[in-house]
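MODEL INPUT / OUTPUT PAIR
PAIR INDEX: 1
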Amino acid sequence: MEGTSAKAIVIPATGDRLGVTPRNGDMSWKDFLSRAAGRSSMYSPVYQSADALINILFSSGTTGEPKAIPWTQLCPIRCGADTWAHLDVRPKDIGCWPTNLGWVMGPIQLFSCFLNGATLALYHGSPLGRGFCKFVQDARVSVLGSVPSLVKSWKAGNLTKGLDWTKIRVLATTGEASDIDDNLWLSSRTCYKPIVECCGGTELASSYIQGSLLQPQAFGAFSGASMSTGFVILDEQGNPYPDNLPCSGEVGLFPLYFGATNRLLNADHDKVYFDGMPIYRGRQLRRHGDIIQRTVGDYYIVQGRADDTMNLGGIKTSSVEIERVCNGADEGLLETAAVSIKPSGGGPEQLAILAVLKDRSTSYDANILKSKFQRSIQRNLNPLFRVSYVKVVPEFPRTASNKLLRRVLRDQLKQELANRSKL
């Protein structure tokens, strides 16, 4: 209550009564609402051009320096349209998505709820505990968003036991590659409601690839391009694969994209998103940096960032592919992270796997884990891949939006192995 002369609206921590005495000029939340009750709800609009700025967001920084991205008047329209079309957000829905306004999902959630006539459910505290899961029940949330690492924590702690999540009619997830078993568990909490996968970026103000309630869904997979967008999958020479052909490669986005940014405040926009990208049907494709796979059944799986691709014995693979296999190698594992290390003296890349245990107070022999990872990878992925290094850690470094920072793990391992070689 001290340190500023600005008028404050004081919100009770719990219930309706304030636990403090407001300063002269301050107002309680209850008084604020009562004063506003008699006023007209009609306001004169302020007209602005479509490219007028509304806010500035920073990218998560998973692959490098965060980019300062200005949003325009078009971005909220894109947010609301995407969730209306793909998540079926409608009036009388109650939406909840653990996030913050520093991550793109914060503004997306605000615009998605309010432009579609839904109610926004806000929880004060960490979404990792049972308190949040109970809030979802008590607030009667009907559209629940999450990130895969959150679902993994809810499942590991069995935090929804005894709770009723049947008011949820649509689930959504973004931020990381989903685990199929975790998605099955999450859906089962809601009487098997659909989970819509979303993948996009701050610079797009939306997702370029999503699930759709109008198409069959598969856990951990996407149905196709978001409404009004398009993309191709590129081979190693930058040539687009034919449509409907099962394949894997870097995605190239169609450049005409409603709501996408056309400038950055701390970097060269064209250099970041367009330089070096191929021409497709007379237009230069937009870079996004994801590696995606198109399956035999025309589903899509995001395999991680191009920056997280590794070359093991002359075969390219992604961190996400290896992690999916390793996560099921031992029941005591909470999650794994796979990175490749280039030896200081040269030679082929070496595979390193870091692991977080469900019970972090127990010790575990890294050599036993190494053997289990090796068997699982050889049996389920590729018999030629060799695990060179395994380390158990208490937790992984993450961005504010809970994305795994593999580049930080890679740098830490390089330094650790370099120090060992000096001894």
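PAIR INDEX: 2
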Amino acid sequence: MKMPVVVQFFIISLLLTSSFYVLSSADSSACGGKCSVRCSKADRTHEECLEDCDICCEKCNCVPSGTYGNKDECPCYRDMKNSKGGSKCP
């Protein structure tokens, strides 16, 4: 029994969409885990640190190791600036 073309298209679309969702979820959780470590000893509020770190991680695809310093491991993360010209990324 042959499946109609519409059903085949629907199944393929569903598989591709779910695969994309899994990949995008994996990226955000990777940032979250790295940012939790990065912000564990932050001077400012933990929530503010996580928010900025997540933004930087999503744009740069990396977070420096440790809770402070090591920004040379990720030049994009190091070089992002906030509106006042200071470092955007914790």
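PAIR 2 NOTE: The two ends are 59 Å apart (CA to CA).
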